Amino acid sequence: MTRIAALYIHPVKSLHRIDVETLDLEPWGPKGDRRWLVVSPEGIFMTQRQHPAMAPVRTFLDADGLILSAEAVPPLRLAPPGPDASVLSVSVWKDRNIEARDAGEQAADWMSKVLQTPCRIVHMATPEQARPTGFGSVSFADGFPLLVTSTASLAALNERLDQPVPMERFRPNIVVETEAPWAEDEWRILKIGMVELELVKPCSRCIVTTIDQETGHIPVPREPLRTMTAFRHRPGGVMFGQNAIIRRAGVIRLGDQVECLA
């Protein structure tokens, strides 16, 4: 057995994370995770890959909705768009014609000013709007509802780097405390209390791992990707962490014990 070392949600895809003490896991992903999306005027999803300035845009959730905060502009409060809001057809990777509700002109103007390029903000409210995949359904996450990483694997990577990187570079939802690096490569079924997760695919990493999530800058070009390429390259890319699906939903908490069933 091991335990949960950290939990994160990312309310808006590619914006700043929120460190949380509990995750309410629904079949299509953690509650509040990647249910909002920044899109181009044409409805194409936008990420840090092309817009690193998205990284330090802070996100907060309260009972009334979402609060966004960035330098040089007043904070923006957004309530989830109601049933009368415009429905936009947006795309995430190969998934086209995803129906999402537009957050309005104030949200579009605010984010366009922060990123210095025209864009809009949209919201996915219900699992009926979720994107179907071969492993169930997902919100605006890249392809899976959950990403699991481990502390020992990050430590093993950082031993090879001149400048260590924090776990936040990899934007996981669940960080498991481990003694053996890369133990997650062998995990298939995890049990956390009554929750059950299936790890179905290693996560191929991209340029986002090179971006400082607090500033939006790239401190060391190509790192940690260049170093990981030397020892973590597999068919499909450079791997760190495991994509997971939620087989049995429920609430998990910091410090909860994690049991590998298979």
Q: What labels would you give this structure?
A:
262 residues, seven-stranded mixed β-barrel, four-stranded antiparallel sheet
For the termini, the CA-CA separation is 12 Å
Question: What is the helix/strand order?
Answer: EEEEEEEEEEHEEEEHEEEHEEEE
Number of helices: 3
Anisotropy-based shape: globular
Q: Please tally the β strands and state the result.
A: 21
Mean pLDDT: 96
Can you walk through the features of this model?
- With 262 residues, the chain is mainly beta.
- It is 10% helix and 40% strand.
- The chain contains 3 helices and 21 strands.
- The protein has helices at 105-115, 151-158, 225-232, and strands at residues 2-9, 18-20, 22-26, 29-30, 36-39, 58-62, 65-69, 76-78, 87-92, 95-102, 120-123, 131-133, 136-138, 146-150, 174-177, 189-192, 195-204, 233-234, 237-248, 250-253, 257-260.
- Strands 1-15-14-19-17-16-21 form a 7-stranded mixed beta barrel. The chain has a 4-stranded antiparallel sheet with strand order 5-11-10-9.
- Strand 1 (2-9) and strand 2 (18-20) form a beta hairpin.
- The longest helix is centred in the middle third of the chain and has 11 residues, at 105-115.
- The two termini are 12 Å apart.
- 37% of the residues are buried.
